[in-house]
Design brief:
Blueprint (H helix, E strand, L loop, with lengths): L8 E10 L7 E8 L13 E6 L3 E6 L11 E6 L3 H8 L5 E8 L5 H4 L3 E7 L3 H12 L10 E7 L8 H8 L4 E7 L9 E2 L2 H8 L7 E6 L2 H13 L7 E4 L15 E2 L2 E2 H4 L2 E3 H5 L6
Parallel strand pairs: 7-8, 7-11, 8-9, 9-10, 11-12
Antiparallel strand pairs: 1-2, 1-6, 2-5, 3-4, 3-6, 12-15, 13-14
Helix pairs in contact: 5-6
């Protein structure tokens, strides 16, 4: 790792989007570097460390794609603790520190030429968005087969990126479906947990298809178990465990699973790799 990767670069908050209601409170931040240097070079699935000056720093997955028109960093943040609460108080024009990127990335070389299925739960859509936007970008769409998405949220008010959904839906050979936990008035899409809807709402293929899933740990386990039950090879199921990370450097020990450190060896893993690790994720 380059020494520069340990030094934060200053970035300005250029846009803040309130994604959900205050009960869940997720905001998306658009960030632009102020040092005049080149845009951060990153891959889908990697993460960065963000500093709120005077408060601390925390890791966040990148919610933007490294495409030719990428001019800013995008992260989506759920208010959960000291750093995230302080970040949520910041406004357009405020400055933060960014260092990275860190970690491995989604296996694009393994996905090229294949169909792709994305299964997300809540804030788990954020790290997948980097890969979704990469795959669906006009420069890359021809490199992948059919794309299907199943996005799960607690309620309609908790849906992320409603301003992006129409664009995703209109991309050639792409199907997007949505589900919430419980029925409610005015909701015309699916109802139920994603693992129960896989065979009902998705055209699942056991060959030439890669499955990407991210969400709460209990959702990841339920989805991966169901995919294996219907015959999907564990090597073709990919997830990211970024929720376990803290320092991003493998020093604090919060993210270790057996002899692995998620922030250094991950955060992206195939389900086959997870099966070879202690059952702690």
């Amino acid at each position: 790792m380059k020494v520069d990767n340990y030094l934060p670069r200053e970035a300005e908050i250029t846009k803040v989007v309130q994604e959900t209601g205050i009960n869940l409170n997720i905001k998306t931040f658009h960030l632009s570097f102020t040092d005049g240097e080149e845009m951060m070079d990153f891959k889908p699935g990697q993460f960065l460390m963000l500093t709120v000056y005077g408060v601390g720093e925390a890791p966040f997955g990148l919610a933007c794609a490294p495409t030719t028109d990428c001019q800013e960093i995008i992260i989506s943040v759920k208010e959960t603790g000291k750093v995230t609460s302080a970040l949520h108080e910041l406004q357009e024009g405020d400055s933060v520190g960014i260092r990275g990127p860190y970690g491995n990335s989604f296996p694009l070389e393994k996905t090229s030429g294949k169909d792709v299925v994305f299964i997300s739960g809540g804030i788990g859509l954020a790290p997948l968005r980097s890969l979704i936007d990469y795959v669906l970008h006009p420069d890359h769409r021809q490199d992948f087969g059919r794309v299907q998405m199943l996005q799960a949220f607690r309620s309609p008010e908790d849906m992320l990126y409603d301003y992006e959904q129409q664009r995703w839906e209109n991309t050639p050979d792409t199907t997007v479906k949505y589900t919430i936990d419980r029925p409610c008035e005015g909701w015309e899409h699916c109802v139920g947990f994603p693992h129960d809807l896989i065979e009902v709402e998705l055209d699942c293929q056991t060959e030439d298809t890669v499955y990407y899933t991210c969400g709460p740990p209990i959702m990841i386990k339920a989805v991966t178990n169901e995919l294996v039950n219907i015959g999907i090879d564990p090597e073709d199921i990919v997830t990211t465990l970024e929720m376990r990370m803290s320092c991003g450097l493998g020093k604090c020990g919060k993210c270790n699973i057996g002899h692995r450190y998620v922030c250094k060896d991950g955060p992206v893993y195939s389900y086959k790799e997870l099966l070879e690790m202690p059952d702690e994720f």
